[in-house]
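Same chain as my last thread, 252 residues:
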Amino acid sequence: VTGVDLVRAQLEIAAGEPLDVRRELRGHAVEVRLYAEDPRSFLPQAGRLERLRLPEEIRVDAGVEQGDEVGIAYDPMIAKLVAHGETRAEALDRLGAALAETEVEGVVTNLPFLRWLVAHPALRAGRTTTAFLTDYPPLSRAPLLQPDRPWQGAWRLNLPPPAPSPPPDADAGAHDHRPGGESALTAPMPGTVIRLLVAPGDRVRARQPLVVLEAMKMETPVASPFEASVRAVHVAEGDRVAGGALLVELES
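reply #2:
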């Protein structure tokens, strides 16, 4: 967009030369980041890149190659994809086409999410906020019509505001169980068990943390979905587990 070589500019500044900020903007650029992470929960994933095909028509900054291993100790980014166009719509079209050509096998990635995001009508219309993924959960069906902008809402027209929606019940899952029910808790992502907080026979309450996993320098607690007794524990502190591995079994 600016044509500035950032590395060269940094060296020139370090050498005491003035920074030339008189630049003419050219078109639009859009960047997405391809990660080894779940496309809905965004939890990091790990595995071997059995196949990696990246687009050639746009700029791609990749730090891995086909055959490389994505581990759990570092950031799981695979590549940055940057598309440029004379208009924002053209840049998004080019990026969407590039994502359609991208192929990754062997590890779960956010590629389905990126394709969904770039094609989403709200994003293409520029009607996005920090609540975007709350309004449009990842990979959900896109609405046929877009809502009005905030300044077109009832408050702007001095009309009574709509009634607020009730807050979600965070314990709804904990309430939805039957006596005698059982539950098997699995690892939401690959990682290392850094804390085991229960033992067989323990009585636990709803939403009580049972196991804490660490991956990509991030701690993720795994909690009980309802009040129950610990039937069995299948891991120990220090164990490295794969995504989906059985951690704890519960029974009411």
